[in-house]
Amino acid sequence: MDSTPMESRRANVEDLGTLMDLWSGAGLPSDELGRFLGEFQVVTGPDGRILHAIGLLVEGEEALLHSEAMAQEAGADPDAWRAVAWRRLRLIARNQGVVRIWSREDADYWAGSGFQPVAVGELPATLPSFVQRDEGWWIYRHPEPAQADQMVQREMALWRTLREQEAERFRSRLVTFRIVAFGLFALTMILLLAFLFYASKLKGNLFQILR
């Protein structure tokens, strides 16, 4: 594993080609979504490749989490990608004064991250423009500022811990590599000296024979 962790950032124009492929692979209208590139956040791996993308449309105190798409990789952990994206999305929503985040994303991860299903009869009288009065909606209600600060601090502490663990593993691998490299160098020198010693003895014996 590389020592660089996954990162989340806002999508940019250079990402559009990759995002179009991800959206198409997820059965989403890639041509339409391309016009709303600025709404999307992406998660990148250690090599910089885009692994996950999801949009956040903000409308006043309401926001819509939409159009999730991700790379198809053997042995991948999509929920780990979602966790990285969700940390950033919550900060963005909080900084913009969002009170509720709506979504129709139905992956188990979102249900376990605070989103609650809302029946049609429980929908508020006034709805944001992106919500239709029908089934299938989930809502995440942002916590109070004090509680949110505690959550952010916990998330940041966890992130710092993960970074430190990754850095420590990298340092450990580097030490092991140096030890192995030094051992190989020492072994090479020993073999070289043994060869030179043997060659000098052989040369001396040959010289005596020729005399």
Helical percentage: 40-55%
Indicate the proportion of strand residues: 15-25%
Strand order of the largest sheet: 1-2-3-4-5-7-6
The dominant shape is elongated
Largest sheet: 7 strands, mixed
The number of distinct β-strands equals 7
Notes on the structure:
The protein starts with 6 loop residues before the first strand and ends with a helix. It has five helices and seven strands, in the order E-H-H-E-E-E-H-E-H-E-E-H. It is elongated and about 110 Å long. A hairpin with a 2-residue loop joins strand 3 (50-59) and strand 4. With 211 residues, it is of the alpha+beta class. It folds into two domains: 7-142, 3-Layer(aba) Sandwich (Aminopeptidase), CATH 3.40.630; 146-211. The protein has helices spanning 16-25, 30-33, 78-95, 108-111, 145-210; strands at residues 7-10, 40-44, 50-59, 62-70, 100-103, 116-118, 137-141.
In brief:
With 211 residues, this protein is of the alpha+beta class.
Can you give keywords for this protein?
single chain; alpha+beta; seven-stranded mixed β-sheet
Topology (SSEs and partners):
Layout: E1 7-10, H1 16-25, H2 30-33, E2 40-44, E3 50-59, E4 62-70, H3 78-95, E5 100-103, H4 108-111, E6 116-118, E7 137-141, H5 145-210
